[in-house]
Amino acid sequence: MAAKPTKNTLMFYPWHHFVLLPAALILAIYGVRRYLTVAGDDSEISRLWFTVAALAVVGLGVLLMLRQHYALTLQDRLLRLEVRQRYFEVTGQSLRPLESQLKLGQILALRFAGDAELAELTQAAIRENLSSKDIQARIKDFHFDDMRV
């Protein structure tokens, strides 16, 4: 098993981290505070501040979830390409004809396999319909991936 690197790198996207998220957070806090000052009133201003606060909190949540979703989707695409490239380097054949028989989870699990066992595990995953956990359990030369967000 390969040693786990200890380097931890933080990446920031300025518009997201320093403009949109703080603005959404400030709007959510301000909206909730303003609503709490008029809460209990059955007035139009009370309903307005409740709506502003609710939309701001939901918007903040969506911003946080979308950022993570986009990062993971992109990483899945990159990992699929990495497995394709490694499979080609090891076997001299394209993985594309076999990909339709593999689920994304299986392909992502195959990335942990060493070069010597990648082709054999790929065939076993197709033949035996192995789950990603089963694939990982069969890996003898495990290459840990700690660069996933």
From TrEMBL:
<dbReference type="InterPro" id="IPR045385">
    <property type="entry name" value="DUF6526"/>
</dbReference>
<keyword id="KW-1133">Transmembrane helix</keyword>
<keyword id="KW-0812">Transmembrane</keyword>
<feature type="transmembrane region" description="Helical">
    <location>
        <begin position="48"/>
        <end position="66"/>
    </location>
</feature>
<dbReference type="Pfam" id="PF20136">
    <property type="entry name" value="DUF6526"/>
</dbReference>
<keyword id="KW-0472">Membrane</keyword>
<feature type="transmembrane region" description="Helical">
    <location>
        <begin position="12"/>
        <end position="36"/>
    </location>
</feature>
<protein>
    <submittedName>
        <fullName>Uncharacterized protein</fullName>
    </submittedName>
</protein>
